[in-house]
Amino acid sequence: MSVSRPICILIAAMGGEGGGVLTGWITGAAQRAGFPVQATSIPGVAQRTGATTYYIEIWPEQTKQRPVMSLNPAPGQVDVMIASEFVEAGRAIANGFVTPDRTLLIASTHRVFAIAERSAMGDGRYDTGRLFRAARDFARASILFDMDQAAKDAGSILNAVLLGALAGAGALPLPPDAFEAGIRADGKAVDSNLAGFRFGLSHGRGEIAARDESASQTAASAGSLLPGRIAALPDAARRHAAEGVKRLADYQDLAYAGLYLDRLETVAVLGDDALTAEVARHLALRMSFEDVIRVAQLKLKPERFAAIEREQRVGPGQPYLVADYVKPGIEEIASLLPGFLARPLIGFSARRGWLDRVYFGMTVRSNRIGGWLRFRLLAGLRPWRPRSFRYAEEQARIEDWLGSIRRAAKLDSALAREIADCARLIKGYGDTFRRGAGNYERIRDQIIRPALDSRIAPAAAADALVQARTAALADPEGESLGRTLSGFAASLPPLRQAAE
Amino acid sequence: MERSFAKEIEALRLGAGDTFHGEGILAVTKALLQSGVSYVGGYQGAPVSHLIDVLVQSQDILDDLGIHLETCTNEASAAALLGASINYPARGCVTWKSIVGTNVASDALSNLASPGVIGGALIVIGEDYGEGASVIQERSHAYAMKSSMWLLDPRPDLPTIVRSVEKGFALSEASNTPVMLELRIRACHVTGEFPASDNIPATVSRNRRVEQPARFNYDRLAHPPATFAQEKLKLEQRLPAARKFIVENHLNEVMPGDLADVGIIVQGGLYNALNRALMNLGLSDAFGNSRVPMLVLNVTWPLVPEQLTAFCAGKRAVLMVEEGNPDYIEQALHATLRRADINTRVHGKGMLPAAGEYTIEVLTRGLLEFIAAEQPQIDIAAPRTAFSTMQDSRRAAQALIGPDLPLRPPTFCTGCPERPVFTAIKLVERQTGKLHIAADIGCHALATFAPFSTGNSILGYGMSLASMAGVGPLSEKRPLAVMGDGGFWHNGVLSGVASSMFNRGDGVLMVMQNGYTSATGVQYLPSSSGNRVDHQPGGSDIETTVKALGVRWVKRIRSYSLPEMVKALRTAITTAEQGLKVIIADGECQLARQRRLRVTEAKALKSGDRVVRTRFGIDDAVCTGDHSCIRLSGCPSLTIKPNPDPLRTDPVASVNSGCVGCGHCGEVAHAAVLCPSFYKTEIVHNPGWWDRFSDRLHRAVIARLGGRAATQPQPAAGE
After folding, report:
1. Which residues numbered 90-119 in A keep a CB inside 8 Å of some CB on B?
2. Is A247 helix (H, G, I), strand (E, B) or coil?
3. How far does the CA of residue A456 sit from the closest CA of chain B (Å)?
């Protein structure tokens, strides 16, 4: 048959990932077959770890005269779209390089999170569900699986798996050995890369089904503590409640876990199961607030060292050191004292402007006797905790929060749920905690309380809470929260000012 | 150097009968050797860095041919290097990134072009325009016109590029004029093949030196009154000579087509994209047999009026395909046709966009319009439908995927020593309030992207300090200039430091001393620990240099020691002491460092030596998912993962296997008082008896105390 146009291959990758290697393997395979081939790329610092592309055109038969090949890809004119990461595949689709009439999409479904996703104050991850759908709707055919995992399993680089998938898909008139030859010719990590290649190959041939992407969520192991009272709760709340009881018994003691259930039941009786479930989750987290004692406790857990050895690939019996970075400030330390000591100390330091300047930084070698003992000592303060200033403060905050949830539940269930969800603003340590708690209080004073005093319509307040929460998580400086709140205040009927 | 070119260098030895396979810019390098070049030089920068890198790594080939290589400290010195061809019959070639490099070189270029050359002078410019470009979008074309230099823009396939280099030297000599060879980004990196020929030793070279200096000849000076005569020479002799050469050597190509009453005039560099666009309309095939006649300008300056008129005569209309603006060629075409009283319609800008890269899509849209207007008898319904189908499909895809698909801007490499400096700046700004930050060119410009998002202006390479000379005096707060050691030696030391001292300026200069021009591919610079010639330290030192210039307040601080950096920067900003304050952030480029370490560490591990591997990690249970650590670092290996805690929904921070153990995240957690979830591990490979003993001891005691603080020996698994 006589060919009328070249095969166009576009590779979407991230700078520094070795997309050039993959490109070289593909062009090499074409050259070995005596096919005219051309590749271009746009390297340079502009691509360092950023999104970049490589473009290849192959003339799939031997010819005397060399055809005129293009240096840029054209939307709607790509035969094979290769993406080393899933959002990059999405970018290619959005740019029109994947079209139903023509394009075979070969992409790894794993995620390398972009900076905006990573730096979000809450959960900023892009929902890739849309990408699976886009791949289905816009690709002629597609080979999608977690090639990062496959590469790790094979000990190869991801590009080897991609190459295998390409070879297996049979989209190019080239035999698998033509591609393998490239890996061999490089002479780098040949065996492991060939392993990766073969895995990709069988995937490309459809011999292996893609692994189930949805099977990531693991259910919590139900705690056996206080089973009777947990069973009395609505189904929706049980899983969280069981986990909460388990956590709080470990955090303080069984009595404290009992207190948790007492509080939860005051909400459960209101009969809004969804609300109870949410409160069960947030309440457990709020009651296990992170103080020095808790941190020490967590740092000593055997599971922790097991996890470290797993993640850091520590061999059996291999000597290693764990150094923890901790830096308690005056507040953290004062919060361990009883209120009548803590309050003056904090007040004094605040006047001196020490609170955000004076810290006691230390690196604790927690798998060495000295460091281990230091943490053990702090963790040992657990029985003292209920007498501590922070404990009293937190319980008050929690009661206030629960109180407003209960009052709101009588007005409007949506409002109650939104108030409950505001608890997610309060988390972390030091600055982070202060910022979160501060944001919550601003929202409480300007939306929650007016709503409970029925100075604002519950529905309006519920909407406002959603907006305020999003705003609070938009920037650490709290600027967007400020804008949102003042905007909300302005939108209120004069009745509000009258009430003040 | 970021990349090794061992394979490519072998290709430079190929001779007649061999076929060269490789990148465009390397084909240029080979073409230089085939042209009997006497000296080469330039300043690195994408997309032409590889030209310099390859030459640096093939010193022995250069020695055989007696070619002198000068790795210049900026484009001005590279342009001045061509001065050798004014008085001597020596072929010289220099290269740089354009438009910026040509801007820096322009003074020397004017003074080179005026007296002209007797030895061929070639300037290979990487036209950094369109997708992938990292500089302002302007055309080098203007320089060719205003200095009367010739500009080649060859079709982007290797044989044509190689021929342009060889003919470029000849053209330069035939017209005593420097010649610029323009290659767009993708053309520099395009792979292909061409029949090689033998390398030619130059008539004048290191191996065949000139015995006597050139005799005094005032006409070779760019100095009045000679300059007045030179201006006339340009127009009366060199220009006609160049046009004659262009025509006789068929540098521009006329391609016939049966649609004789229309035509397309195109810059050589755009030919391949144009042909693909014509294919989309069914008006050409993959071998370039176009139905529309074409005039391909492989020389875009000077134009040859006779060629233009001959091509346009008898045509109803032509389409001028000229990328970028202003549309110099189109304007010249209009004028030429008017003068020749030829009233062929000229389409160009209008049917094609005034600005931006001419991709296949852009060209296809323009051609659809051109054919509809000038060849209505041709049925283009099918291609038009195909085009709109593509657009609809793309619109639908975008609607489904949504506008919130996260962008992926480039950022500092894992473990980069420049990241901690910007963390320090962010932390200092928490106390001093926002600062005016004059940014510069180099890796540190990546701090203009998230999560740092710093920088108020970028005025060019090494210009940051100079660019805030007018800001400081007008501001309450002292401004901060960031500059790399690359920018410092490129010109920051004079236009910045010296000027600031001379004017008793008061500000802060942060110099990133990472030892290389890293952004361009990790090349040596004057203060490098090495030197390409003798591999000895570069010999110039930034600290002594600024002190010699009279700077009294100088601090040299290890980039990774965040607390000291914060302290120094805060002091520099707030101290009552007037005058320029210079902080040298000292930390070797991690790219270069890792390349070295990987080898040595692998060796040590093999030979059973004790190696301690440092890595960082985060306790899932302690991390509450606020991600301040990421907002203060942005390290690629500091990422997020689903929260294993069934009660928590926000993802937790996590350190991936890319971590090189630079320690920055630990420093941040400490300096910014973030959270106690960061930990460092030091894993001992090939442990000695003491390692084993103390480890067992600690484990035993802790176990006795009722804890578990290290691994229980487990079968299998591990290294």
Report:
1. 90-91, 93-96, 98-100, 112-119
2. helix
3. 30
Q: Say yes or no: B361 contacts chain A, CB-CB below 8 A.
A: yes
User: Which of B449, B626, B634 is facing A432, going by the closest CB pair?
Assistant: B626
- Residue pair A107/A144 in contact (Cβ under 8 Å)? The answer is yes
What domain range includes position B264? Answer: 253-401
Residue B171 CA, distance from chain mean position: 28
- For residue B288, what are its two tokens? 């370039």
Strand boundaries in A22-133, DSSP class E = 37-41, 51-58, 80-83, 104-108
Residues B640 and B620 in one domain: yes
Sign, CA torsion B114/B115/B118/B124: negative
* Structural domain count, chain B: 4
Residue B146, min C-alpha distance to chain A (Å): 30
B392 shares a domain with B307: yes
Interface list for A 443-462 with B (CB within 8 A): none
B701 CB within 8 Å of a chain A CB: yes
**Residue B390: CA count within 13 A, CB half-sphere:** 22
- B625: buried, middle or exposed (CB in 10 Å: 19+, 13-18, 0-12)? buried
Task: Check whether residue B279 and residue B390 sit in a common domain.
Answer: yes
Pick from B35, B47, B159, B42: which is nearest to B105 by CA? B42
Longest dimension (CA), chain A: 93
Which residues 91-150 in chain B show a CB within 8 A of chain A? Answer: 131-134
Residues B235 and B284 both lie in one domain: no
Question: Do B506 and B629 sit in the same domain of this protein?
Answer: no
Q: Find chain B residues with C-beta within 8 A of A478's C-beta.
A: none
Q: Are strands B508-513 and B581-586 parallel, antiparallel or unpaired?
A: parallel
CB contact under 8 Å between B666 and A40, yes or no, is no
Q: B267 pairs with which residues across the strands?
A: B297
Instruction: For chain B, say whether A224 makes contact (Cβ under 8 Å).
Output: no
CB contact under 8 A, B408 and A5: no
CB A67 to CB B401 under 8 A? no
A40/B46 CB distance under 8 A: no
Give me B280's structure tokens.
């989309």
* pLDDT one digit per residue (tens) for chain A, 500 residues: 478 999 999 999 998 788 899 999 999 999 999 999 999 998 765 567 788 999 999 999 999 899 999 999 999 999 999 999 999 999 999 999 999 999 999 999 999 999 999 999 999 999 999 999 999 999 999 999 999 999 999 999 999 999 999 999 999 999 999 999 999 988 888 999 999 999 999 999 988 765 544 444 444 444 467 888 999 999 999 999 999 999 999 999 999 999 999 999 999 999 999 999 999 999 999 999 999 999 999 999 999 999 999 888 898 889 999 999 888 888 888 889 998 998 999 889 889 888 877 888 888 999 999 999 999 999 999 999 999 999 999 999 999 999 999 999 999 999 999 999 999 999 888 878 888 999 999 999 999 999 999 888 999 999 999 999 999 998 888 889 999 998 888 877 655 444 44
B65, part of any domain: yes
**Residues of A whose CB is below 8 A from B272:** 68-71
Last residue of a domain, one of B193, B227, B248: B248
Structural domain includes residue B114: yes
Do residue A94 and residue B398 have CB atoms under 8 angstroms apart?
yes
> What domains can be seen in chain A, in order of their start residue?
7-214 (3.40.920.10), 223-288 (no CATH), 292-387 (no CATH), 392-500 (no CATH)
* Contact residues on chain B for A239, CB-CB shorter than 8 A: 646
Q: Is this prediction's ipTM beyond 0.90?
A: yes
Of A44, A112, A130, the CB nearest to B401: A130
Distance CA B509, CA A239 (A): 57
> Residue B2: inside a domain, yes or no?
no
B665's tokens:
């995240």
Does B63 lie in the same domain as B109? yes
Determine the residue among B278, B561, B675 to mutate to test chain A binding: the one whose Cβ has the most chain A Cβ atoms within 10 Å: B675
Answer yes or no: do B676 and A77 touch at CB < 8 A.
no
